[in-house]
Design goal:
The chain has 252 residues and is mainly alpha-helical. Helix content is 77%, strand content 0%. It contains ten helices and no strands. Helix 1 crosses helix 3, helix 6 runs antiparallel to helix 7 and helix 6 packs across helix 8. The longest helix is centred in the N-terminal third of the chain and has 25 residues. The two termini are 22 Å apart.
Length: 252
């Protein structure tokens, strides 16, 4: 596939916006998946290629949050296990499902997950001052992270909302700290998923790196915004992004 300057700029801009959205909320793949398919990538290839950008932006976001002491390091290992196990299962399912069924499944899950979070945004916003729980002390949160890993490994689009629900609703992290751990989860199951999609030859590296370069810049700048934001402003931004995700689900 040949890319001209316009295509490169458009994909980079798409990645920039998606990287920023994913770092402070979720739903960035609602933008990148349709964009990749618009440029001619089949649904299965777009799904695999998108993971290159997710990997790059997640690594950038984690480094930024950790630099500003937002990342809860002791919680990393306990949340990695269910996330990676779920990611392996979800990615394998996505790689094996025939392409004719994959595209409608992708679009339906994007729309459905966005609608759920739009109708009940309070589940991911615990009251100020709430003490976070350790992942090992909440079995429901463990299974929620496992389910998020399956979903993230399968489609990725909107998984940030599910992770925020598990980390905020289940483990009672505030939105800023939940976002930091969300990036760890995303990196873990994306690593597994990317390996699966590479094995099935479902990754096109050039568009993946183009979108990824933009997404890294978006993630870097978004961390700087997130650490200065209040819980209320984060909640309002999340609501707006969720609303846009629902609209985007109808458009694609």
């Amino acid at each position: 596939m040949q890319f001209d300057i316009f295509s490169i700029l458009l994909l980079s801009l798409t990645g920039f916006v998606a990287g920023g959205i994913n770092t402070v909320a979720g739903g960035g793949s609602n933008i990148t998946l349709p964009a990749l398919m618009m440029f001619g990538l089949p649904a299965d290839i777009a799904n695999g290629t998108n993971r290159v950008a997710i990997f790059m932006q997640s690594a950038t976001g984690i480094a930024g949050y950790d630099k500003h002491k937002i990342l809860d390091r002791p919680a990393i290992i306990p949340i990695l296990i269910p996330s990676m196990l779920g990611g392996l299962l979800g990615a394998t399912l996505a790689a094996l499902i025939p392409n004719i069924f994959l595209k409608p499944i992708l679009l339906l899950t994007v729309l459905s997950m966005s609608a759920v979070i739009l109708l009940r945004p309070q589940i991911i916003c615990p009251p100020k001052g709430t003490i976070a729980l350790h992942p090992r002390k909440n079995s429901l949160a463990w299974w929620s992270l496992f389910a998020a890993g399956i979903y993230g490994g399968f489609v990725q689009a909107g998984v940030g909302f599910i992770l925020l629900a598990a980390l905020g609703g289940g483990l009672r992290y505030d939105l800023i700290r939940a976002n930091a751990l969300k990036m760890v989860c995303a990196l873990s199951f994306t690593s597994v998923a990317l390996a699966v999609f590479i094995a099935f030859d479902q990754v096109w590296w050039l568009p993946g790196f183009i979108v990824g370069a933009g997404s890294m810049l978006g993630a870097h700048l978004a961390v700087k915004v997130a650490i200065k934001a209040t819980q209320d402003s984060m909640r309002r931004f999340l609501f707006a992004i969720t609303l846009l995700s629902v609209v985007g689900g109808f458009l694609v």
